[in-house]
Amino acid sequence: MPLQYINEMLGLPELEIHEILSIGENEVHLRAYPTARLQPCPICHSEHFVKREGKNTPRKIRHLSLFGKKSYLHVPALRLSCSRCRIGFVWAYYFVGPKQRYSRLFRNQTVEQALGSTAAHSAKMQETPASTVQRMHQDAIPAESERLVQQAWNEAKQMEGLVLGIDDFAIKKGHTYNTGIHNLRGETMLDLLAGRKLEDLRAYARQHPEFLGLQPKAVVMDLAKGYHTWINECFPKAIRIADRFHVHGYVIEAVQAVRKSVQLLLTPKAKEMLKRHHRLLNPQAETLPEQELSMLHTLLGYSSLLRSVWEWKESFSRWYDYSANVSLAQIGFNRWCQQGTQIDHEAVRSALKTMRNWEEEIVNYHRCRWTNATVEGRHNRIKAYQRRHYFTRNRDCYKAGILIECNRHKLFG
């Protein structure tokens, strides 16, 4: 292949390939020289007084793969001097940093692979030491995280009808938690703060005036009182919405509590069947395949109380899906609560008490139909990130890595 075509494939206009040194089974070695004769002095920024003083040992730079093989560029380390400034300096190549052995394009490609998986996987793909890939990854994280977060905040500030999602996830379940702030409409994670208590949230608002500068139309949260108090203080005009996923969880817990009490009164065979297939009680019946739906009806035939509470749960799902407006939703919610009062079980009474306490926030879903479903998906990605990186001890790196993981779809956009 003519050398000019190799020059075009490499995509490095500052270099010109002069010679193919060797082509092995897995490697290609090329000798290249700068296309320019001189470089400006780093102090006076002029070439007029610059001259060449000789060469040091050539630099060997790993570049992107060429012909399916690892490619290495051998470039001269030219010594230069400026007679005006009386300094000596070495030729600076723009495609590779000073004292580095990997080109910028190679580093970018390697980091892109590592962000989506692990340093070990990227190292295997690039046939590079894992420690080297890890170092590239750590070097790239702060700048990329800052760029993505700034982009997400700018988008949120300019967005009309902004809808925020607030939810926490565990670092150590039952002990340590983080709280994420999400732009649901823009599908981005805005920030991550340590803790989930009200004093932690208030401290964050004081330290970040740009958060108070947002103008959300609505904020979606679970039923944690601290979140609603905080959002009411920060955005009193915003619609506070109780997240459907969390609200529905209270109803499902009541169904399972009834199932456990019913289970004790059944025959051993029926008890074993109900225990084995208890998860069929949770999803909507219309989402189940025919075989599982048949098994569900068998389970409901074991107890009239179990069937009643299951029908009550199904009515709640239909209320969420089919309420046409807020006024009809209010009427339907009251009817659903009346249906629950006819079920004589402590778990149902407890769930109804919670629902009545949060009636306004639950019904607000029909004013602005948003949920934290995408946030829950991000939590799964965060947990996977934590397992891959073994809970990075440096808080700044940990936070930056999570923000990149959750905004990765805009990383190279």
Automatic annotation (TrEMBL):
Residues annotated as domain Transposase IS204/IS1001/IS1096/IS1165 zinc-finger: 39-85
Record domain Transposase IS204/IS1001/IS1096/IS1165 DDE: where: 164-400
InterPro entries, alphabetized: Transpos_ISL3 (IPR047951), Transposase_DDE (IPR002560), Transposase_Znf (IPR029261)
Pfam families assigned to the protein according to its UniProt record, in alphabetical order: DDE_Tnp_ISL3 (PF01610), Zn_ribbon_ISL3 (PF14690)
Protein name: ISL3 family transposase
